[in-house]
Design a protein that fits this description.
homotetramer; 347 residues; alpha/beta; Alpha-Beta Plaits; TIM Barrel; 8-stranded parallel barrel; 4-stranded antiparallel sheet; 34% helix; elongated
Chain lengths: 347, 347, 347, 347
Amino acid sequence: MLVVMRHGATPDQVAGVARAIEDMGYRARPMPGAQRTAVGLVGNDGRVDESRLVGLEGVLRVIHVTQPYKQVSREWSPEDTVIELPNGVRVGGEDVVIMAGPCAVESREQILETAHRVAAAGATVLRGGAFKPRTSPYSFQGLGEEGLRLLAEAREATGLAVVTEAVEPDGVAMVAEHADIVQVGARNMQNYALLRAVGRAGKPVLLKRGLSATVKELLLAAEYIMIEGNPQIMLCERGVRSFDTHARNLLDLTAVVSIKELSHLPTVADPSHGTGARSKVGPMARAAVAAGADAIILEVHPDPAAAASDGQQSLTLDQFDALMLELDAISGVLGRGIARAPAVVHG
Amino acid sequence: MLVVMRHGATPDQVAGVARAIEDMGYRARPMPGAQRTAVGLVGNDGRVDESRLVGLEGVLRVIHVTQPYKQVSREWSPEDTVIELPNGVRVGGEDVVIMAGPCAVESREQILETAHRVAAAGATVLRGGAFKPRTSPYSFQGLGEEGLRLLAEAREATGLAVVTEAVEPDGVAMVAEHADIVQVGARNMQNYALLRAVGRAGKPVLLKRGLSATVKELLLAAEYIMIEGNPQIMLCERGVRSFDTHARNLLDLTAVVSIKELSHLPTVADPSHGTGARSKVGPMARAAVAAGADAIILEVHPDPAAAASDGQQSLTLDQFDALMLELDAISGVLGRGIARAPAVVHG
Amino acid sequence: MLVVMRHGATPDQVAGVARAIEDMGYRARPMPGAQRTAVGLVGNDGRVDESRLVGLEGVLRVIHVTQPYKQVSREWSPEDTVIELPNGVRVGGEDVVIMAGPCAVESREQILETAHRVAAAGATVLRGGAFKPRTSPYSFQGLGEEGLRLLAEAREATGLAVVTEAVEPDGVAMVAEHADIVQVGARNMQNYALLRAVGRAGKPVLLKRGLSATVKELLLAAEYIMIEGNPQIMLCERGVRSFDTHARNLLDLTAVVSIKELSHLPTVADPSHGTGARSKVGPMARAAVAAGADAIILEVHPDPAAAASDGQQSLTLDQFDALMLELDAISGVLGRGIARAPAVVHG
Amino acid sequence: MLVVMRHGATPDQVAGVARAIEDMGYRARPMPGAQRTAVGLVGNDGRVDESRLVGLEGVLRVIHVTQPYKQVSREWSPEDTVIELPNGVRVGGEDVVIMAGPCAVESREQILETAHRVAAAGATVLRGGAFKPRTSPYSFQGLGEEGLRLLAEAREATGLAVVTEAVEPDGVAMVAEHADIVQVGARNMQNYALLRAVGRAGKPVLLKRGLSATVKELLLAAEYIMIEGNPQIMLCERGVRSFDTHARNLLDLTAVVSIKELSHLPTVADPSHGTGARSKVGPMARAAVAAGADAIILEVHPDPAAAASDGQQSLTLDQFDALMLELDAISGVLGRGIARAPAVVHG
């Protein structure tokens, strides 16, 4: 950490900064320059709270040299984390994992039909919302526990692992009981009580990037989960907010590359929420695999026009079949394949 | 609501849209145009879920004519909502309410000294965090319940009302017991479980705009609170995320004006978080009063350099005194004053 | 176009809007609704200036049903535009065109070595800046006309077509004399005098999206060029400005898909400027091909560490060779190949 | 400047960075830290081009301690620049200058009526576009030279100074001949040929911030003008692009404060373009004065509903009269007044 002093800061002010640094238990190293002095903080263990220093007299700004996250960083653990799911699929390993299913669980028929079809096409994880956080209180909010039971039934029938969202700390245990992966949605990326709860639940977590969260904030959110003792975290890019409306969100695929450089955790891309339009999902799913994502999560619905939510961005079952062939071929170019699971009846 | 068809949409597709609208219980009114057809949805009561329509064949996009929020809108209630606090101060009325105090409650001495001084200078509400949501798990997270007790003690000593944040649904009851206003922070603006909990707590709510929330989303978040039966909501602009780093956030004062046009609820501006730098707080507090905010919330600390959090944006007690004179004069230009409370020992 | 009236607008105000529409030469169609009235404007030929209507009494807002651009739209010309360069390469056709070269032309040796190597690896267009618009007046601004001559010499030596930037209207003729494609840079996307000048120059144009331009604004900028009589325009996504700094810009690959849906013009992606970091260029170049871009433009330098500008995002010659194999394979998955030119000595 | 090395960078890589710094004529100061080494660059005169360093092996990133602009900075010239216009009005001095007039000059009657009325209400500068850069080529583009002559006639009749926009380098001389202040619009903030041309024209310049330009980029654009020998530059905040559409742009009033801290140049705020809606212009004009802007530029039109452009954001003449009283009172709170000019017939 580097504390940059204002032009014309007095020796007393520089000494005051050095004293504050030493009070915090670190070493201070003043560096006089041609135009201004800077004071280095040596020994930063990633826990320094800059606000103590920013407010001191004569200070212009504080520059971080070391990142504030620790356990999620690649420097902490140089080797890629691989998460093995109960059905034997490995996320973050050699092969690309496909997660697919409807936005929301709507009925037994809907979820079972979708599960069988996506399994046959090569998916290994079934997605589907039982609890839906919605911007408007008047929108459909999910089937709740009944939805969780239907997902578990679909798992039994197909061998797919199940990922579904928990929306409040008190609901984590129930979700964790039925799901193989607990999802934390974009709106809840900085819901710290929820992060701690999923950190303690002992199940793999799919953490979605907030709508305007930086990659650094996403990694710090993962750090909240990890320090509870749960290292099984997948980091999901799902589009950020933008000034343009040509698509619902702006899918930041470069973040997949950045996360992989900064962290050892597996990456997931969500082109369905990331684009918000069926016609754009296929191209961006292909792009996500080409960019190196470890997993792709896709909305698929047997009858998108009748979907209770997000119908406009759901692929049809036939579109999903066709897309899987392309994703398989592109992953092959990168020396990967589409992950298969022994327990799943693939087509 | 207007469903715009693609150029070249077939009569069958137009009829399909009309049928879907009627299935949902509304009337459809097709409007053939020079280049394309649009289908109007008549009878929208604010509860139409557009996703049913967006996915239909031949549909280009859906345009909202009516806003999706209802009870928070000015059309629902043309008259301004005025919220009366236990100490007699009215938020949203003729006068401008000043809320002031430290970012976090740190000690008995700190909160009492601050409370006496801001009361003397004309504040009527004391702010101070007992539970602090922080981006990094390694940052100071607040004193918890002990902080709430210290705030209550400061209220007894000064007559100030107390505003403090609740960070999870299970914690709302405890906060509501000690506070006069329950704050929902920016990171939790779309934490729906928390919104519902504060909606049921029966205390006035200060709802902060999310870091990249639109005004429409802020109003929908307020709608979540209001439909639980709690209409006492203040909407707070506290800066949004931007591409520039000349200030910590981008304080969107125009939102204060927009909210007032769209909603009957009182508006609050937070120039401390909105700018993140002490030297910018005063000018932007003046600007917020000039723009018409009903209340201003300010971070003030007896010794900002020693603050446990956000020291760089806290005013000193002397700076606060000086600023209050300016805010009083500017509110006078708008035919308002600074709200006083009989129970508070103002200077 | 739909003019939405305020709740409670008077019949006189509605009539005033209808009158204004008819004054402008269109037909007005009032549509009374449950909560508010809207007035449709029928006969919109894409030239309606909404500002006449927005300011009328009782008007809430104006909604565009038809897009404001015309000749660049896919509705104007449903078939893809294909631009044939002098060396026989076709941009926008079946195959993916690779444009490569240094950020700036620095010396005869540098540009010739780069040209021979990228040609051997399969590129068909040589990029290189002779005039460099730079944020700081103290940064290197390019070799100017000497740079153009070196590019022309490299074309003679290799058969590559040349793309280079024009930065002011008076300079377009000189650039057009030496280049096969005239580039308009991101900072100049709304420099209308420059757009008109390149529109009249008769050479193909590579138009870069502005740093925070919407896709709609990009299409309108292309419309400025096209109405001068020049339909040979390639639209280039090169990253937009974002709140995050994990990469220099936010490469919006979905825009490639959106542009293709809205317009008949070829699309180009620039992962070098789009990411700003060498380690991210390869993954995002692969992603761009996978998303369907018609051409990729890449910065390549024989010695990036010594580059006069943008060294951090330039690929080495060896990295470029390796990347070309991947891009070829991915284009194959989409039923495309990498475009070759008879005149170029490919490896 | 600080070059931060990657964790695990070799001594050779550190030495390579030091060598590069010394090759550039500066001194290198390696600083080994607990987790990584950084290399300080000492002697930076504001002209260091970081791209040489970013690409070196082992380099993680380059951190700027000194800003890249020089002559526009407050460190270069601690005293405020005051620009005196021909009619005796001083911009950047004690009093707040009001610039007012229509978006575009439309007719002799329109500009003369407006000029007389805004002068009577206390304005000292007349605004009005003769050349209008418009997003769509089909929108009204201004009266051109005829508009300039009408502005000059209005100046003769009222004593107001005139500000109007130049849109291309070749047009600067003509604009400078008729205007007292040459405006560079937001779209052209990085049109360097234009900046150099206005730098050489010898007239005061009103430079508008680009739609998503950082304050630093605005200052660097001003540096382009200043190094041509023209220090008479006013920096105008006019709203930046945002993810929200509750207003046309997001008026960043904090930028007015930031610019004043970083630079000695006068600041201007444009609440008309900054909000895009008549009902929001008054509140934000008051806020801009309260925040400390040296000048306010406002769109005023005798008949906004008939305006050729931007009618929705133009004040009526009566609204302008009323607003001036408020602005006068608020400037008084800050110890300022509204600037008057001896030559102007104020009311």
